[in-house]
Amino acid sequence: MKIKITLLDKVILWMFKAVNQFLDLVNSSNKNPHSGAVTQAIALKFLFARKFDVHRAVQLFEQHELIRLREGLYNINPMTLELRTELETGKFTILPGRDASGAAIALFTANLHNPETISHKLTLQGIVYQLDVALLSTQTQKAGLVFIYDMSQSKYSNFDYELSQKILTLLKGGYPARLKKVLIVTAPLWFKAPFKILRLLHCYKSMTNREDEILANISNCQTDNNDSSNISVQNVEITNQNNIDFGSDSLLVSSLVDSSNTASGSTTTLSTNTTTTTTTNNTVNLNDSHQKDMSLETNQNNDPGSAVNDWTENSPSSASSGFSDDDSLAGTEGDPKTIEQIVEMVKAMGRTGLIKEYAEIRARPPDGTFNNAKHRNNLGKNRYTDVLCYDHSRVVLSEVDEDPNSDYINANFVDGYKQKNAYISTQGPLPKTACDFWRMVWEQHCLVIVMTTRVMERSRVKCGQYWEPTEGGQMEYGNIIVTTNTIDSNDDYTVASLEIKNTKTDEIRSVSHWQFTSWPDYGVPASAIAMLNFLQRVREQQAIMVNDLGDTWAGHSRGPPIIVHCSAGIGRTGTFITLDICISRLEDVGTADIKGTVEKIRSQRAYSIQMPDQYVFCHLALIEYAITRGMLQSIDLTGFDDGEEDSE
C-alpha cells in the first residue's frame, strides 16, 4: 500500500531536518559554558527568526551568545532587589494585545528611564528577561515582534543614546525574535539628529508579501515580513497602564496566550488595560485592513474615500508620452565631481560616511502624493503595500472599455542623462497585473525590458512569470500575445528575444528581455564587473533596436523608455538606473554626481535606492568602471569599512 505524503508532511520533514542541522552545527561549536546544551525548543526560536535558513539562524545564535556574554545577560534572576525594582517601573512592557498580523508588541517608555541612576546592564536584563518569557509563545516566534519607543513627555535627560543603540542592535541582529518594525512615538525636536543616526542601524524592507509569494513558499505559511525593520516616527502619545507582576513568569505568559486566542480575528484590540490618546482629536489605528504590518496612523476624516476624491489626473499627453527629445536635462546641476574627486571623497568618507549620507537622503519626506496608488480599486495592483507610485510621474495606461480605474499600473517615468522619461521604473508584475504590464510595453513602444531579480529567490516569489521561459512558448495577455523566439543564457544574465503581437491590429513588434541573475540573495555583488558588463550590453541592444526602427522612430535618439524592474522596483532598479546615468555623464563630460542622481530618481520613483549598501555599491561600481576603462589606475581603498547591510 502506498503512503500518501501530504504537503504538511513535507513541511514537517523539512523543518525537522533544519532543526537537526542547526543543532549539529551549534552544539559541535558551542564553547560558551554559560549557555549549556542547545535544545530543539531553542533551535526553533532561532530558525523561526530567520525563516528556517539554517546558516543565518546559526549566525544569529552566535551573535546572540556574544551579546549575552558581553552585556552580562546570563542567569537573570528577577527576584533580586535591583532587577525587581527595575521591572516594577513598567519602563519596558510586553503589551497583552497583538498587531493585526499577530506580532507581539513591546513598549519602551522613555520618560521612565533615568540614565544617571541605572546601569545599561540592569536595563538590558529587564528587557531580555521579559523578551525571553514572551518568546515562550510559539505565536510570537512565528509572527515576530513590533517595538514601540514611546518618547511622550520625555526630556533630553531621559535619552540614552548608547543604550538605544544596544537595544536596537540586540533586537535587529542578536535576539531570536523577528523584529518587524520599530515605531518611535512623539519624537521631540531635539531627537531629530540622533534619530537620523539610529536609522543607520536598520534596513528598510517592511514589504508585505503578496498572495503569489505565500502560495509558492511552503516554508512561510503565514504572511511575513523581512527580518530587517522599519523605523518610523509618529506623533502619538501612548500611555501604558498595565499592572503586571513582573516577578512571575506565569502572568506574563498567560496574558500572551490569552491575546493569541484573539489574534486570528480581523481586528485586534490593543486597549485592554491600555489607553491610547493623542494631543489632537485624531484617532489612533493599530490595525489597517489594507496593511498586514502593524502601523500607527492618524485619521482626521472618517470618510474612507476622502483620500482619493480631490486629486487631479495628470495630462495623458505629458505623463504617458513615453519619450522626449528634450535635451534640457543636461546633467550639469548638482555637485559634479571628476572620477579622481569621487575616489578621494570615497576614501575620506569611508563606508560609514556614505551610509550616513544615504540616511540623510532617506530621511526626507516623499516628493509627491500617492492618491492613485491608494485608491481602493488600485490597492490590489501594488505588489507591496508600502511601495507606492507617485501621481506626478506615473505611467498612465489607456482606459479599457471606458473604465476609469483601468489606467493604473505601479510604474513611474524616470529621467535619464539628457533624456526625459528615459526609463520606466516598475514593480515585478503580479499575475493579476501582467496584462497591464504588457499594455504598458505596447503603448510606450518599449524595446528593452531589464529584470534585475530572479522569479524565485530564497524560496519566495519575487516576480510573476510574465513571459514564456522556453523557446517557442507563447503567453496571451488580453489582446497581446507574447512569443519567446530565442533564449541565450550566460553566467550572469539571460537574454530572451520576444515577439509581441496586438491581436486587434495584427501588428508585431520585437522586445528584448534582459534578466540579470548574478545579484546575490543578500547584500550587493562583491564586484561590479558583471553588472557593468550587463549594463553595457543592454545599452548596445537598445541602440541596435532603435537603429532598426529607422525613420519610423521620431523620438529621442536613445529611443523609447527602457523598462527596469526588480521585485518592488526601487532597490536594484534604482541601482541600475543610477549607474547608467552616472556612466553616461562620466563618458560625456568627465564628471558624475551620484548623490544628486539618486535624489533626482527618488523624486520621480519614491524610495529608489532602497538600502545603504546599494548607495555604497553605486560609488564603488563607478570607480570600478573607471578602472576598466583606463580612466584610473588601480587604487588603494585600505581602511574602507567592509561592513555590509542586508538588502534585496
Structural class: alpha/beta
Strand content: 15-25%
CA-based gyration radius: 26 Å
Low-pLDDT parts are 200-330, 643-648
Strand order of the largest sheet: 11-12-20-13-19-18-17-16
Relative helix content: 25-40%
Number of domains: 3
Q: Which CATH top level class of the largest domain fits?
A: Alpha Beta
Reported by name, the CATH topology of the largest domain is Protein-Tyrosine Phosphatase, Chain A
Overall geometric form: globular
Mean pLDDT: 78
User: Separation of termini?
Assistant: 46 Å
Q: Per CATH, which architecture of the largest domain? A: Alpha-Beta Complex
Give the CATH superfamily of the largest domain.
Answer: Protein tyrosine phosphatase superfamily
Write a brief structural summary:
The chain is α/β, with parallel strands linked by helices and 648 residues long.
What does this structure look like?
- The chain is α/β, with parallel strands linked by helices.
- 36% of the residues lie in helices and 17% in strands.
- The chain starts with 6 loop residues before the first helix and ends in a 20-residue tail after the last helix.
- The strands form 6 sheets. It has an 8-stranded mixed β-sheet.
- A hairpin with a 5-residue loop joins β1 and β2 (104-109).
- It has helices at residues 7-29, 40-49, 54-71, 81-88, 120-134, 138-143, 161-173, 192-199, 211-216, 249-262, 316-319, 339-362, 371-374, 434-443, 529-549, 571-589, 594-604, 612-628, and strands at 92-98, 104-109, 145-150, 179-185, 230-234, 237-240, 274-277, 283-285, 297-299, 337-338, 411-416, 419-426, 448-451, 456-457, 460-461, 474-477, 480-489, 493-502, 507-516, 562-565, 591-592.
- The longest helix has 24 residues, at 339-362.
